[in-house]
Amino acid sequence: MNLLEIAKARYSCRNFKPDLVEKDKIMTLLEAARVAPSGVNFQPWHFIVIQSSENLEKIHQAYKREWLKTAPLIIVACGDHDLSWRRNDGKDILDIDVTIAIDHLILQATELGLGTCWVCNFNVIRLKENLKLPDHIEPIAIIPIGYPNDVTDPDRHDIKRKSLNEIVHWESISIL
Ligand SMILES: Cc1cc2nc3c(=O)[nH]c(=O)nc-3n(C[C@H](O)[C@H](O)[C@H](O)COP(=O)(O)O)c2cc1C
């Protein structure tokens, strides 16, 4: 698959087979995240790899969805507010940096035939407590990963996404 094919093949998988994800594939996912760009190359991220049932349960407590229990692997992508670059106007770009790394990881997973889902709607306080994260480390997303136990419509982007006409503006934007 080329990059556009991988981007179109990715979807939010919420049903996984129990098969474990091989260690070499996990390492490839992490390598894809590692090489992501970041503001001033500060790389303000940490990735917590969770496979034990005890620690998976700690994640479930922070995002109580039955489907999440089907994931044999969860990677919690965290940002370090002590490391991230701040623009002159004070904007902390941590979310941008970590998001790019997560997207590298997710697209790599797709290329390897693995399903993933972005999850941000978790209980932050519970997750920080359960993973014993210090104050300056923010969990940005939890990414359940595994072999998909569902299928998706290959033409869904024609229906589920806005058209280019709606979102692209050549030279200037007139809708604001
Ligand atoms: C930043 C972000 C946060 C998301 N958080 C959640 C979440 O907490 N739970 C969930 O089930 N899906 C979550 N999603 C998945 C979106 O609902 C999904 O990407 C969107 O509906 C498009 O569907 P698709 O991923 O299958 O193309 C999130 C997606 C993104 C990009």
Written description of the protein model:
The chain is of the alpha+beta class. It has a single domain (3-167), classed as 3-Layer(aba) Sandwich (NADH Oxidase). The protein contains 7 helices and 4 strands. It has helices spanning 3-9, 23-34, 53-62, 94-111, 124-130, 156-160, 164-167, and strands at residues 45-50, 73-80, 115-116, 137-146. Helix 1 packs across helix 4 (94-111), helix 2 packs antiparallel against helix 4 (94-111) and helix 3 (53-62) runs antiparallel to helix 5 (124-130). The model has no long low-confidence stretch (mean pLDDT 96). Residues 11-12, 117-121 line the site of flavin mononucleotide (FMN).
The description of the largest β-sheet is: 4 strands, antiparallel
CATH architecture: 3-Layer(aba) Sandwich
Query: Considering DSSP H and I runs of 4 or more, what fraction of the residues is helical?
Result: 25-40%
What's the structural domain tally? Answer: 1
Q: Tell me what portion of residues adopts beta-strand conformation.
A: 5-15%
Query: How many beta-strand segments?
Result: 4
